[in-house]
């Protein structure tokens, strides 16, 4: 089964906790702090693996969690970092953040990697907090939680040449003749519901990848029929072979078909509309197709298109088309992206935290630094709690809450921690 879209959840490893300990040796009865740091959590890394050509594995496993870092130990021994979790994906995988839609990576080359979730920092041991004012700190940090997010994976075929055309014009028959691919072939529309890849090998030893892509219909650019599924895969092809049913036996005019499909390509992407096309007039083994071909040839000659008469049933003319596709591939050059204007990005003042109201009336304090502080503070430790309160005051969060109208007894929430607000006199 060909699966070309998947939604997965990734969770990087949490950092290991720092250790709070003191040297207790025979001749050093009151040694200094000796707590080691926790190890960093492992990252979640997507890596391109040529052994995969579909996203079907993600149908059965959707959550990927990297190992956590090891906790710090006494005698200044630091914890080992968690190993990275490598998740194999097929070439051509586009990675998006499920919440924002932001493209995180476009993975096309074998071995290419993308870190999609960073492991949490290891907590610092109490030995790290020694200073001139505090000679014997009795607290240590907890490990930072690893990043967690949901991802959309989309597979776009990495084919050199794509066969495009209406359903049942003979694309599947053509790819079965010129490659070892074995698509399902039948007389009804939409036989090919999933893309089929085949390697075309020419007599001189040259080869390229050819894709038989599901048939396109009008309205595809807005998602009708197999629209977006089709267009997503044709995006990466360098050359298109546009297959027409020259016989017109199904009551459709091949000329109208040609312009209808090109309209859909242009509506979906200007870049696609500029792709070089070879026109193939198929079913020339039928008398009706032979009559139509002369009309098609005269018309496309005026438009500057190359047209080739072929018969997928007999194989006649197909080698000439494949040879021409190879020549065009050698001359293909990717157009540089046109930038309309130069954007100047100004540095934004970093927002330390924000305050909002939850549905239950609680005041929710959000911000990378304050949330990390909460996650890494051991509130059961008196010294750790005092450090938290000191940083809280330095960030002037209490003043900001008062400006928002907080009252005695109201709930304040930071991450998964809640406390009741008490005003200090």
Question: How is the secondary structure organized here?
Answer:
Layout: E1 5-11, E2 44-48, H1 57-60, E3 63-65, E4 85-89, E5 93-97, E6 103-107, E7 113-117, E8 148-155, E9 161-164, H2 171-178, E10 196-201, E11 207-212, H3 227-234, E12 239-245, H4 254-268, H5 270-273, E13 276-282, H6 287-303, E14 306-309, H7 318-331, E15 354-357, E16 363-366, H8 368-376, H9 382-394, H10 397-403, E17 411-414, E18 417-420
Parallel strand pairs: 1-3, 2-4, 9-11, 9-12, 12-13, 13-14, 16-17
Antiparallel strand pairs: 1-8, 2-7, 5-6, 5-8, 10-11, 15-16, 17-18
Describe this structure in words.
It is a single chain. With 425 residues, this protein is an alpha/beta fold. The chain folds into three domains: 1-155, Distorted Sandwich (Spo0b-associated Gtp-binding Protein, Chain: A); 161-331, 3-Layer(aba) Sandwich (Rossmann fold); 354-420, GMP Synthetase, Chain A, domain 3. It is built from ten helices and 18 strands. The strands form four sheets. It has a six-stranded mixed beta sheet, with helices on both faces. A hairpin with a 5-residue loop joins strand 10 (196-201) and strand 11. The longest helix is centred in the C-terminal third of the chain and has 17 residues, at 287-303. The radius of gyration is 31 Å and the shape is elongated.
């Amino acid at each position: 089964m060909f699966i070309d879209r998947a939604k997965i959840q990734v969770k990087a490893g949490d950092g290991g906790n720092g250790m709070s300990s003191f040297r207790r040796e025979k001749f050093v009865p009151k040694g200094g702090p000796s707590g080691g740091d926790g190890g960093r959590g492992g990252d979640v890394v997507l890596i391109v693996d040529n052994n995969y050509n579909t996203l079907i594995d993600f149908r059965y496993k959707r959550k990927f969690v990297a190992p956590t870092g090891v906790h710090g130990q006494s005698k200044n021994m630091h914890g080992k970092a968690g190993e990275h979790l490598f998740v194999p994906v097929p070439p051509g995988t586009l990675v998006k953040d499920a919440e924002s839609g932001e493209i995180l990576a476009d993975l096309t080359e074998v071995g290419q990697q993308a870190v999609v979730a960073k492991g949490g920092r290891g907590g610092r041991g109490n030995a790290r907090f020694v200073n001139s004012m505090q000679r014997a700190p009795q607290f240590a940090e907890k490990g930072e939680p690893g990043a967690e997010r949901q991802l959309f994976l989309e597979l776009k075929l990495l084919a050199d040449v794509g066969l495009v055309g209406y359903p049942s014009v003979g694309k599947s028959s053509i790819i079965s003749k010129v490659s070892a691919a074995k698509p399902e072939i039948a007389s009804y529309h939409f036989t090919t519901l999933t893309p089929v890849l085949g390697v075309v090998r020419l007599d001189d030893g040259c080869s390229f990848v050819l894709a038989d892509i599901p048939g396109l219909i009008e309205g595809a650019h807005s998602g009708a029929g197999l629209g977006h599924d089709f267009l997503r895969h044709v995006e990466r092809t360098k050359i298109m072979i546009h297959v027409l049913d020259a016989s017109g036996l199904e009551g459709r005019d091949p000329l109208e078909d040609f312009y209808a499909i090109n309209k859909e390509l242009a509506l979906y992407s200007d870049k696609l509309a500029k792709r070089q096309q070879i026109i193939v007039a198929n079913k020339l083994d039928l008398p009706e197709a032979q009559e139509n071909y002369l009309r098609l040839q005269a018309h496309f000659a005026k438009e500057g298109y190359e047209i080739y008469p072929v018969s997928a049933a007999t194989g006649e003319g197909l080698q000439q088309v494949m040879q021409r596709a190879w020549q065009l591939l050698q001359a293909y050059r990717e157009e540089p992206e046109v930038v309309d204007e130069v954007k100047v990005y100004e540095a934004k003042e970093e927002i330390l935290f924000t305050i909002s109201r939850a549905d239950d009336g609680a005041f929710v304090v959000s911000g990378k630094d304050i949330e990390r502080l909460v996650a890494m503070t051991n509130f059961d430790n008196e010294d750790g709690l005092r450090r938290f309160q000191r940083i809280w005051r330095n960030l002037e969060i209490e003043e900001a809450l008062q400006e928002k109208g907080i009252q005695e007894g109201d709930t304040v929430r930071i991450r998964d921690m809640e406390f009741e607000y008490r005003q200090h006199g």
